[in-house]
Amino acid sequence: MTQETKMKRIWHYLKSPSSAGLWLILALGFTGGVIFWGGFNTALEVTNTEEFCIGCHEMEDNVYEEYKETIHYSNRSGVRATCPDCHVPKKWTHKIVRKIAASKEVWGMLTGLIDTREKFQNHRRELAEREWKRMKDNDSEECRNCHNFEYMDFSEQGNRSVKMHSNALASGEKTCIDCHKGIAHELPDMKGIENW
Prior knowledge:
Blueprint: H1 3-15, H2 17-46, H3 50-53, H4 57-61, H5 63-67, H6 83-87, H7 92-110, H8 117-137, H9 141-144, H10 159-171, H11 176-179
């Protein structure tokens, strides 16, 4: 069988009524996939903004107000770290895992677990410890998007900072969150926390 004959047979099959249904299914599947993927990525980006994060009064009235008083909100360089910069990883797979874990936080908001300042304060330590553990487990990945030991100019830092950053760099055991708890939000009651 020649190449031309093979091509004619394939073309004839593709034009037959039975394959038309297959082509329709493939076209609908492709179109549906593109629409789903586009919608999914759009939703992912919308939920990855500061406006979305402070869309519920629990965040706007509590941690956002605290954050506005920090150097991450307003500083001499004009660079601002927003909620997703610190709380959502940049790598896609890690971002999806974080988004799934964040559904617990949305559930807390929907059920009224932290819908008042008093309730929020009662759960602050639990919420903070969960976030500190997440950051410790990922070696403060979000911090390192902007801060990196290897790029620090120790000559511009105070003596204590130089000592701590040098030790952390040399040991490789400490990560940003070990020393910088409360960098952007008020600390919970720290009684009973080791090394505090």
